[in-house]
Amino acid sequence: MEAGARGEIRVEGLRFGYPGREVLDGIDLGIATGELVALVGLNGCGKSTLLRLCAGLLKPAAGRVLLGEDELSRLSRRAAARRVALLHQQAPQVPGMTVRHLVRQGRYAARGPLGMLRHGDDAVCARAMADVGVTEWADRPVDALSGGERQRVRLAMALAQDTRVLLLDEPTTYLDLRHQLEVMQTVVRLREERGLTVVMVLHDLGHAARFADRVVALRHGRVAADGPPAEVVTPALLAEVLGVAGRVGRDPAGGWPVCYPDHPLPEGLRNDNHIH
């Protein structure tokens, strides 16, 4: 593995905005190789923007993102894609595209356009499909699959980039509970088997509390809380970050926090203090 291709991420003084709207206002965050981190917060707080900056798809207005010792903004888009894989929240449908062809798209950064034309599946694609259990669907059209099946195929495409860092933007959105758990358990397993660093945006605080090593909560473009789920997932987090009154218990079998939201809170009852 080349220098700088390790799975360590450091975000230093990161600021980003669109015309008339600041999105991230000075983010400092360190993610160690092999960690599984969940980003939580209300819509518009900057979670997806932070992922896109960490994937090299956006350039910061200030601050920097480091992958190992390399500053991401100094890398080309293709070089960044050889270091970091991002599974977007949604992807356009391509009628008639098979599972095999979609997964193969993940090899573009490594093989380039000519390599994509000259070669079919390689060992990396084969392993990616096998790791998420979609090999038997290789010649089926993607648009004939269920939502949960398509998400597994898209995860295989991200794995085909063969990176040490995997960023997932709401990987369980639009899935039923069974397929949500299937995707989450697959990500946890792959993280262990491949030694991946995983950062995922999650709306379900219950999934974050159960599956992540760390929960990082964003509010108004800043880190409002950061730590292990047992320390961070509290009634204060529910109130000040997610805007709901509620209670937090413990799962009797696994010990992870379990949230019991009661009702939404008026905006005026929340404050801007760092929770933890």
From TrEMBL:
Gene3D superfamilies: P-loop containing nucleotide triphosphate hydrolases. Pfam families: ABC_tran (PF00005). InterPro entries: AAA+_ATPase, ABC_transporter-like_ATP-bd, ABC_transporter-like_CS, P-loop_NTPase, Siderophore_ABC-ATPase. Signal peptide: none annotated. It is a peripheral membrane protein. GO terms for molecular function: ATP binding. Keywords: ATP-binding, Cell membrane, Ion transport, Iron, Iron transport, Membrane, Nucleotide-binding, Transport. SUPFAM superfamilies: P-loop containing nucleoside triphosphate hydrolases. Its main location: membrane. Residues 9-245 form the ABC transporter domain. It comes from the Bacteria. It is found in: Cell membrane. PANTHER family: IRON(3+)-HYDROXAMATE IMPORT ATP-BINDING PROTEIN FHUC (PTHR42771). This is ABC transporter ATP-binding protein. It comes from Streptomyces viridosporus T7A.
